[in-house]
Write a structure and sequence with these properties.
Radius of gyration: 19 Å
CATH superfamily of the largest domain: HUPs
Helix content: 25-40%
Strand content: 15-25%
Largest sheet: 6 strands, parallel
Structural class: alpha/beta
């Protein structure tokens, strides 16, 4: 497996490759990431994974400096899976000068998580576009756990006619339902025991919709109240259509999404219904 730290090394490697799949990550890899890699391997003979904690998508006071960086362990896991290359640049390699040009995503970027993390999706879409330009993959794989991110990246690729097929990987969960996330490591033992409640509340919304309930506000408020009663600080619980428009009387398919803080850790999750 090749470990590529510079753009020059990446380009030299890329010139020798044909059809490739790409899995962009911020490292601290868990079973959810590895499932995305295995999905990528189903779509191309060569897979490259990027590991880069992107400062553009972190706001003031967020966890950029303490975000787990575990490159050696990540490389070992990817080597076991038979990944052909890892692109692991440092910040000055990917941003040799402050980034002057940015992607401007649509208003969806200011809703849901974007309302609580201003500029986050500008940073996400900008770094993904930059990585696409460098890696030039045919396939790129993203997790459904970050549903809003996935939706915005699909829209960006469509609007800019980027020749990359976006594949979505299912959310991987612990046995108690908690969606796997690098931020789960920030949870205290007590918080980890309480963390599955977000998934449980989204599951209750899922069950209610399947049983014919359509009072979206009541379902959202009930889930919010339950989380708050158990010590969560809720950013939002929302029921949308698959394009993340607010659900209405005509909606036939739904996505229930939630973001909430447990202690100092912000967790997100969603369920498609």
């Amino acid at each position: 497996m090749k470990i590529l730290h510079t753009v020059a090394e990446l380009r030299a490697w890329r010139e020798q490759q044909g059809h490739i799949s790409f899995v962009p990550t911020m490292g601290n890899l868990h079973e959810g990431h590895l499932a995305l890699v295995e999905l990528a391997q189903q779509h191309a003979p060569v897979v490259i994974v990027s590991i880069f904690v992107n400062p553009l998508q972190f706001g003031a006071g967020e966890d950029y400096t303490r975000y787990p960086r575990t490159l050696a362990d990540d490389v070992a896991k990817l080597s076991t899976l038979g990944v052909q290359a890892v692109f692991a640049p440092d910040v000055t390699e990917l941003y040799p000068q402050p980034q002057r040009y940015h992607i401007t995503p649509p208003d969806l970027a200011n809703q849901l998580c974007g309302a609580y993390r201003p500029g986050h999706f500008v940073g996400v879409t900008t770094v993904v576009m930059k990585l696409f330009q460098l890696v030039q993959p045919h396939i790129a794989v993203f997790g459904q756990k970050d549903y809003q991110q996935l939706t915005l990246i699909r829209g960006m690729v469509a609007d800019f006619a980027v020749p990359v097929k976006i594949i979505a990987g299912a959310t991987i969960r612990a046995a108690d339902g908690l969606a796997l996330s690098s931020r789960n490591t920030f949870l205290s033992p007590d918080e980890r025991q309480r963390a599955p409640l977000l998934y449980q509340q989204l599951s209750r919304i899922q069950q209610a919709l399947q049983q014919g309930q359509r009072d979206y506000a009541q379902l959202e408020n009930a889930a919010t109240d339950t989380l708050q009663q158990h010590g969560w600080q809720v950013d939002y619980i929302r029921i949308c259509d698959p394009q993340l428009n607010p659900a209405d009387a005509q909606t036939q398919q739904w996505v229930a999404l939630g973001a909430a803080r447990l202690g100092a850790t912000r967790l997100i999750d969603n369920l498609s219904i």
